[in-house]
Amino acid sequence: MKSVTPEEIEHEMHKAAFDQNHASFRSLNQQMWQIPLISMTLTGGLWFGVSRVEDFPLFQVALLFLAAAGNGALFVIILRLRFVMQQHLDWLENTYPAGHVSAKGTQWYNKPFLVRSLFQFMLGLAAILSLILLIATAWTSREEVFGIMPQDPALTYYEQHAASLADGYETLSLETAHPALLTLINEHFEDGPLAVLDVGAGTGRDASWFAANGHRIVAVEPSEAMQTIGRRLHPPPEIEWRQDSLPGLAETRASGETFDLIILSAVWMHVKPDDREQALETLASLLKPGGQIYLTLRIGPSEPARGIYRVSEEALKDQLAELSLKAGKLDEQADLLGRSNIRWVAMSISASES
């Protein structure tokens, strides 16, 4: 049996160490080149998530924080990877100088660490942009993010989300959203123009239907942002816009007008429970003899951040009875936005017969 000399043993050990370091370097190099892909996937996915949850600013802030933290972590990781790779390169150069390719360029585009520096610049830029977006989101939605409840959360919500809400409203027609309203009009009013008050008119979608059908329509909307969009989409003089709000409707009451039909679509849940009796008194005072109030009830959970309070048919009927008003159920339908925990009940309200 041939004996192994110390020189051969040392040679084999050097060869094994060389192979191991070479393989480790290749693995580290592959990992470094994967970092930009990880960063793009991480940042793109989280930023897309932010764009899809605009109604939940606290969640947006959390996603942007993850994007900033993730890119910051990758920035540090690439530093560590390149440091370890350099140690392997130095060892390989010292071990086998003749076979080592240093590739130490002299121009700006081929100098050592150029690729690492470019990667780090992009990672740092993504982290900084995420932080800027985080700060901007937190500032614009600071009431909800920091748990500060605005004086009128419903109005604040509509002011901040007017554009996206308007897009949703305008995709539906009045016929689709309120079939019971058309039934109420056909059954209780003769042919001829009506004096109509739309309280919480939003973008004026419903008000424009009444104007197009020859009725006199006053659109009341407390949100300046929503009213601005409404005036652009459905301009005067067909619609008379007013910035007024429940429970008092001070400007409308001061005008001395009364109406055949008053509409409250997706409004009653925004009226604070303590203000509802006054709101009903106000509405009754604006109603002509024989007039009707069309009101929709959102049956579902409360959402304090959006100024949404619980409502029910029973509570409404009890309050109406105290004011000598009566209510009738017109219709019930599922939520048109597909929310399974919410349904809508359409009610008609009128003065009780003596």
From TrEMBL:
Residues annotated as domain Methyltransferase: 196-291
Gene3D superfamilies attached to this UniProt entry: Vaccinia Virus protein VP39
InterPro entries assigned: Methyltransf_25, SAM-dependent_MTases_sf
Regions that span the bilayer: 56-79, 118-139
Keyword DNA-binding included in the entry's annotation: no
UniProt entry tagged with the keyword Membrane: yes
SUPFAM superfamilies linked to this entry: S-adenosyl-L-methionine-dependent methyltransferases (SSF53335)
Keywords: Membrane, Methyltransferase, Transferase, Transmembrane, Transmembrane helix
GO molecular function, one term: methyltransferase activity
Parts forming coiled coils: none
UniProt record, GO biological process: methylation
Protein name, as recorded: Methyltransferase family protein
Gene source species: Hasllibacter halocynthiae
